[in-house]
Amino acid sequence: MPTSLTQNPPHAIKGDARGPIDVAEDAAWLRRMSYASITKATQNKGGSTVTIRLYFEDGYRAVLKADQKKSATNFKSEIVAYHLDRLLGCARTAPVVGRQLPRSALRRLLVASKADSQFIERFDSELNEAEPGMLRGAVIAWHTKRLYSLDVPRGWPKWSLEKIPTAIEPQIPALQELSAFDYLLDNTDRWSGGNTLLLGQAGPLIFLDNGAGFADWRMQRKLALDGDLEHLCEFPPGLIKNLRALGPRVPPAQRLGQRLARSLAKDPLAPVLSTEHLSALDWRLERLLAHIDSCGK
Is residue 81, in this structure, part of any structural domain at all? Predict the structure, then answer.
């Protein structure tokens, strides 16, 4: 059952993908997560949100972050993060796609896997229904290697070269990229603990847990994470090249907001972002590029 998304996944505007994720596997992951049969579901332990581990008929796994009533994070931010990552050529997020699932069938799978009663209660009470009996959310591909937390403080850009910890030094270019990425998403929950992660004990750094972006109230107040850029003036050249190709100097149809809107329109749960959020994204990119330009003066 091919779709425009599985046939043409998002890709870098300029140059090749730079990061550790094999983007050649995106189409297969998107097909699997969009409509493959789910044979098992288990509670995904840890974190404050209700997340569910899904097992597909071919043995691959993913995590469902469903639309929730109480969480400050939102599943749409996870979907946008995947598309943005690919458009910028970062290749550091796992593939993500929106999907609707029957609530009763998913509940039966959780009960069969012996999910604890407290988790089932939260499943029953904390998840929104897109329509009667149906849940919707972001399905996020499961990384094949074990993940390790990298303890990075929010103020890491203030470090002098001689004070950078040995474990963090190889990840500095990726952290620079992550800071720009989170600025565009307006992701407010990167530095609360456990959200800077390595794929394998020695890395590389990946972008996971991207659900705290695009808060309506922040967009309405025109807030941005300017403080996270204040002491940061170096960014990977490939990232800057893609940012400029999507910035205010290109025709409106080629700017980030419009490019992203066309990419997100392929997702099964489209529309993912409002016109207002897309405009705010262009505004943040303009501010990010102005900051980069000011660093060279």
Answer: no
Token look-up 């870098």 returns 12
Do 288 and 189 have their domain in common?
yes
- Listed in order, strand segments (DSSP E) in 142-245 are 147-149, 197-199, 205-206
Q: How many domains are contained in the chain?
A: 2
Instruction: Please check whether residue 195 lies inside any domain of the structure.
Output: yes
Residue 14 in tokens: 């300029």
Instruction: Name the DSSP letter for residue 234.
Output: -
Q: Parallel, antiparallel, or unpaired for β 51-56 and 197-199? A: unpaired
Q: Which two tokens stand for residue 220?
A: 């309405």
Residue 287 lies in a domain: yes
pLDDT in tens, 263-283: 999 999 999 999 999 999 999
In this prediction the pTM is 0.97
Residue among 178, 201, 173, 202 at smallest CA distance from 191: 178
pLDDT score recorded for residue 163: 87
pLDDT, tens only, 114-156: 999 999 999 999 999 999 999 999 999 999 899 999 999 999 9
| Pairwise CA distance, residues 63 & 43, whole Å | 10
